[in-house]
């Protein structure tokens, strides 16, 4: 008899990351930081070269202390991982059984589906309104038996968010035994007065976990580094299911330096604020629909017409060395997600889309 994996594993569609860029092209497909990373983080990484034969601190204590100081939270309630992706998977491994119901929003991050499928759970999507999470729809979809509700706030790939009052209403209306996971990967880009990353909600409610990442504003996507903040009993569970050395030594060092470099974070946010607004203005001026974004990317919609669809635009841009993200896997076949790049990249995108529309 041929060895077979657990039922449902072969039904999983592996996550497909944003396309790599050929040499000389601009990679605008993965929402990476256009400014790179903090030089302090790079120096800390290089300084690890003579210590690569040594196991890292299994609890990433130095990094947790640095995060706690920067965020004003208890480091003992932080778990670090190989990107927030790993932390989302640890949550699924710890709390999901086969047949459990998991809820995400209609255009939620694809990793939530992977988390559910890996555990044999059922993933159900709640409709969004104008590409924005709808709390009433989430509650109706979750019902009384959802084990986990995943909410990316802001959301990838739409770039939209819902205010803290709505997230709190969601938590207060869900059953007490439903875990609400707030994925705040893009929190540092948002300065709207009605937005909260979810950290305070972890303190206020029993069943809330907030995940964060170093991949976006800190520019450490290549090191795979993230963290979760939760109640002590949830953190204890996640420590029990993670690997003993799940964060490598250079990542700990670079992350510790990055979280303390507030100047780099400010410069990254200022760059993003300027160019998101510019891209939205320029692309809308071409007659294309753009969903308002608080993240480091824009969601551009194309007409369902021969030669003018998103796939046509993607190919047109790629021929000009501009690599973007098609969104068929998200159920958005006529949209492209375009990351904010350097000034010359952003101008090149606007010029190329102008040529595409004018054909």
Automatic annotation (TrEMBL):
What UniProt keywords apply to this chain's record, in alphabetical order? Answer: Amino-acid biosynthesis, Aminotransferase, Histidine biosynthesis, Pyridoxal phosphate, Transferase
Q: Which CDD domains match?
A: AAT_like
Supply one GO molecular-function term.
histidinol-phosphate transaminase activity
The Enzyme Commission number assigned here is 2.6.1.9
Magnesium as a keyword of this entry, yes or no, is no
Stretches assigned to the Aminotransferase class I/classII large domain: 27-352
Name its pathway.
Amino-acid biosynthesis; L-histidine biosynthesis; L-histidine from 5-phospho-alpha-D-ribose 1-diphosphate: step 7/9
Q: Which residues carry this modification: N6-(pyridoxal phosphate)lysine?
A: 216
Q: How does it assemble?
A: Homodimer.
- Return the protein name: Histidinol-phosphate aminotransferase
Source species? Marinicauda salina
Gene name of this polypeptide:
hisC
